[in-house]
Amino acid sequence: MDDASYLSITSLSKRFGPLLAVDSLTLAVPRGSILALLGPSGSGKTTTLRLLAGFETPDAGTITVGGDDVTRAAPAARRFGMVFQHYALFPHLDVGANVAFGLRVRGSAAERRVREALAMVDLAGYERRPVSALSGGQQQRVALARSLAPEPRVLLLDEPLSNLDPALRERTRRELRRAIRQVGITTVFVTHEQEEAFDLGDRVAVLEAGRLEQVGTPDQLYDEPASAFVAGFVGRSAAVPGERLGGRPGTRALVRPEALRFVADGGAAALEGVVTERRFTGAQALFTVDAGGGVAVEVQAPRRSASPGDRVRVAVDRVLYWSDAPARGRADPPDGGAA
Length: 339
Known about the structure:
The structure is a single chain. By secondary structure, this protein is an alpha+beta fold. The protein has helices at about 45-55, 75-80, 95-100, 105-120, 135-150, 165-185, 195-200, 220-225, 230-235, and strands spanning about 5-15, 20-30, 35-40, 60-65, 70, 80-85, 155-160, 185-190, 205-210, 210-215, 240, 250-255, 260-265, 270-280, 285-290, 295-300, 310-315, 320-325. A six-stranded mixed β-sheet has the order 6-7-8-3-9-10, sandwiched between helices. A five-stranded antiparallel β-sheet has the order 13-17-14-15-16, with no helix packed on it. It is elongated, with a radius of gyration of 23 Å. Residues about 325-335 have low confidence and may be disordered.
């Protein structure tokens, strides 16, 4: 068994009536690595996670872990741990009883597993604490400890931080990453938050309409998108008619704010326009420039570079992606459907 494909998904498909939720998906997850499934609502990421967990049965394809074919195995037989979006903790049980729930061992063996799992998530000594007395981040770590206690082969996380406020989400994300790294468990998690995917994932798989658009490191996805969808969905970008940047008529050039800069009169400007908005982000700001013809770009520059109403010239240092078709761009946040 090759550690580079410890968890292997091959030509996996799942249809719900007329909807093809997962379309011939193939992925390999190395042992001990973290894979993020990223995409908009309806992209198939949650369905993929449910297929891995055994909660759904694929119409075609295979899932193997450690060389074992688990495609049609019952969820319990797969030895996969699962952390749900809403944690699914039992409020009437204390922390220790929640973590012990589902363990096949009892007595001192169970107590040892509980202690070890809580120590992995920096909650040692919390066994007798009421769940209701814990913060949201602590409850998330209890859910993680409960999934780790049975010593699973793979850990699955379904939008694990979506219920936390922004400040707590960032802190808990760091704690979660540290805990997973400490255990060294192969992990797949679903998210629609790019920052979360890039911060937690060793690699990120971008899905759209059930298909794999690209898989790679965060740097690869950001700097070298394989499709117009990835270029428009990952990070910020704007579309400019190709002929305005020296490309073929009918093409579109996707550009990032940091690849644009203001130039003085006489500079090598590719675009000219009027600043319509300035958004403060600290030392830098995002300036929206209306370049005419329905084209608007964002320029990342020092915050005193321009003001709304200024006429400016913009140089393009690098085109992120050339497309023969209009970019679909960033999708709306999830609002239901086959995610």
